[in-house]
Amino acid sequence: MKLDVIKLDGGVAGDIELSEELFGLEPRADILHRVVRWQRNNAQAGTHKVLTRSETSYSTKKIYRQKGTGGARHGDRNAPIFRKGGIYKGPTPRSHGHDLPKKFRKLGLRHALSAKAKAGELVIIEDAAAEGKTAALAKQVKNLGWKRALIIDGASVNADFLKASKNIEGLDILPTMGANVYDILKRDTLVITKAGVEALEARLK
Question: What pTM does this model have?
Fold first, then answer.
């Protein structure tokens, strides 16, 4: 598939032939869902914790005598049955992450790129370069109509461009190796540089 290549000032800089294997697939929601779930689960801290019976701060002294009260034979106030007692089988710190084959992760990225291309939310730019001035870059982004955009550059991101983009709301920049399904789907517009396209094709062969 062919797509126009534009400059940051809005001018046309030719066109580019995009690989059908990366940008021409029929997006599958089940594949995208599995990869996003894998990403979010790996990012989850899993630090939730409750106090068990041995960690609550009541005395371990017997509450009342064993016999003669007509009540149950309770001893420790830390028992789960009592208010502010220990929690039985509550959550403990653990990892929520799970494995996903590398081939499937690559497939998910291909489907995410194809989903953006099919929705008309894919933009190819000549390069991501700036003079380090936020105001100038913000004006260009506004003129291009990018409100929530992710820019994927080549192996590395231009330092001046990164500096200029830091205070622009809704604009994120990643090198090719940082490209992932969750960030791509989360943004309204996916912007890829020509160097980024070449690097993605090499990465997702």
Answer: 0.82
